[in-house]
Write a structure and sequence with these properties.
heterodimer, A: alpha/beta, Rossmann fold, four-stranded antiparallel beta sheet, 11 helices, B: mainly alpha, about 75% helix, binds adenosine-5'-triphosphate, binds magnesium ion, transport (chain A), ATP binding (chain A), ATP hydrolysis activity (chain A), nucleotide-binding (chain A)
């Protein structure tokens, strides 16, 4: 099972959203992490055959993304989707199942099964327009899974989920990743930290880092420091180091920052987490503002 | 006796729990539907109101014919209502865009293009049958020939098809249906005004006007339909859906 993405590029009028990305994905969970506008949705749409690439190709076991057979192995949750106004949750799933080529009987089984798995069984007959954002999102996840896809692409699947549902979702995904390719995008670092076997960090249309959590973090391992300092020192540190976190305490300021060696007296090295790396790459702008 | 033995055996030996059950199941090929099944299932998803509207018009005409004979005003009333039938069909064809289901549908095995082609085919055929049905009811009740009557009734309908398709192919907003409603209202009113203002509109004086408009509109509509299908095939989508 191999999904090959070869020099995939998408250019809108004058903006390159995806810039010659090449990747090979195998069974497992891939977490695509990147800030707004980094090109996650554009990349995923091309993998789903919904957006035509400017150049490059996508193949699954040798089958091109344009072919019906490819779509047959695909499950996709778009970042934003609608539904026909007369649909209940159950109707919606039956409709999607008919497009995915499931027989009536199997469609009904699968729809009930997934409604239960995402916790919507008791509202199955309710109109979707009465759903909250999180419920609709869960319905979207159920829809993507109906045809038991080999490739599962989820664009910000946890957007709008409450903490309990988030955890349930994480457990579900890590189970699903055992025998299929799961690619999910998010800007919430903790969503992928524990479940993604590979983390892809995207910036300006390119994958700037990829690897397991440990591999990725090793870039800044041992370089994350925490300290509590007075306001003068705070200004100095902000001006000279990438800051990850600032918190005002009663008379001092607590800082978490990245530095090659101890930046000031009393700073303690702490274990790095993925969020440190993410902020290290993406909050240059934030620092300058302050 | 045998049953007892089975039970005994079961209780003595532990059945090992299935380890790779899910992997095994996912490798099985489940029966899939055929393209025909898909087309039939799509029929069920065409909104009832589309059928009801056509039925109502047809029954209304039947009813009207019972009481009145086919006069010129009967013709303009029917020909001004017909654009609304095409409006309801067109709203059905573009509902993926209206309700933002396009992206989901594009990613499915039977995708957006196939869904639209089924809708286009089914609704086109029913509209055609409705038109023929109405003509058959009318003919013989007037002095006009079948063809002449056909021209009077279908030309406004075609004008609306062309106008709506023109809009659909060029505008990229989800409000597209409102624009189409506007087009339909315009066509309907225009048709009414023309037939009321120009007394001779259904006479020999305009013998060239009708077939010319009919043929031009037919060609233009056909061109827009081809364009629409091409655009769907392209799978290009420039709607800025990105948040
Ligand atoms: N239809 C479009 N036309 C023009 N530019 C577009 C279009 N869609 C996206 N872009 C641009 O391409 C870039 C990448 O967009 P994309 O939606 O892929 O980002 P993203 O990583 O998914 O962002 P987010 O986290 O906000 O969902 C952005 O700069 C965006 O403005
Ligand atoms: Mg996005």
């Amino acid at each position: 099972m191999e999904l090959i993405i070869d020099r995939l590029t998408k250019q809108y009028e004058n903006k390159i959203a995806v810039d010659r990305i090449s990747l090979t994905l195998k069974e497992g969970v891939y977490g695509l992490l990147g800030p707004n506008g980094s090109g996650k949705t554009s990349l995923m749409r091309m993998i789903c055959g919904v957006l035509k690439p400017t150049s490059g190709e996508v193949k699954f076991n040798g089958i091109d993304v344009n072919e019906e057979e490819y779509r047959d192995s695909l499950g996709y949750l778009p970042q934003d989707f609608g539904y026909y106004p007369e649909f209940s949750a159950y109707d919606f799933l039956l409709y999607m199942a008919s497009l995915k080529g499931l027989t009536k009987h199997r469609a009904k089984d699968k729809a009930s099964e997934w409604l239960e798995l995402v916790g919507l069984l008791d509202v199955a007959k309710k109109k979707i327009k009465t759903f909250s954002g999180g419920m609709k999102q869960r319905l979207g996840i159920a829809q993507a899974m109906l045809n038991n896809p080999k490739i599962l692409i989820l664009d910000e699947p946890t957007a709008g989920l409450d903490p309990k549902e988030r955890i349930r979702f994480r457990n579900l995904i890590s189970r699903l990743g055992k025998d299929r390719i799961v690619l999910l995008s998010t800007h919430i670092v903790s969503d992928v930290e524990y479940i993604a076997s590979t983390i892809l960090i995207m910036k300006d249309g390119q994958i700037i880092h990829q690897g397991s959590l440990d591999e990725i973090i090793s870039v800044i391992e041992g370089k994350v420091y925490e300290c509590s300092v007075d306001s003068k020192m705070t200004d100095y540190l902000i001006a000279n180091y990438p800051i990850i976190n600032i918190r005002e305490e009663s008379d001092k300021t607590f800082l978490r920052l990245v530095a090659d060696k101890s930046p000031c007296e009393g700073a303690v090295a702490v274990p790095a987490v993925l969020e440190d790396l993410y902020l290290y790459y993406f909050n240059e702008g934030v620092n300058r503002d302050e | 006796m045998r049953n007892n033995l089975k039970k005994e055996l079961k209780s003595v030996f532990d059945v090992p729990p299935p380890t790779r059950k899910n992997q095994f199941l996912s490798q099985l090929n489940y029966p899939k539907t055929s393209r025909m099944d898909f087309i039939i299932s799509q029929l069920g998803y065409i909104r009832k109101r589309t059928w009801i509207l056509s039925m109502l018009l047809f029954i209304g005409i039947l009813d009207g014919l019972y009481f009145y004979k086919v006069s010129n005003s009967f013709i303009w009333v029917v020909s001004s209502i017909l654009p609304f039938i095409s409006l309801s069909s067109i709203s059905e064809i573009v509902k993926s865009t209206t309700y933002n289901m396009k992206e989901l549908e594009m990613s499915c095995k039977y995708n957006f293009l196939q869904i639209c082609l089924v809708r286009l085919g089914v609704l086109g055929a029913t509209n055609f049958m409705l038109l023929i049905g109405i003509l058959i009811l009318f003919v013989g009740k007037t002095d006009y020939s079948f063809i002449r009557l056909g021209l009077y009734i279908t030309t406004p309908y075609l004008l609306n098809c062309y106008g709506s398709l023109y809009v659909i192919n060029r505008l990229k907003t989800r409000m597209i249906m409102y624009v189409c409603c506007g087009v339909t209202a315009f066509v309907s009113v225009l048709n009414t005004l023309l037939t009321i203002q120009i007394n001779e509109i259904y006479t020999e004086m305009y013998w060239l006007f009708w077939p010319m408009s009919f043929i031009i509109l037919l060609l233009l509509s056909a061109r827009e339909i081809v364009k629409l299908i091409r655009k769907m095939e392209e799978l290009q989508w420039n709607l800025s859906l990105t948040a």
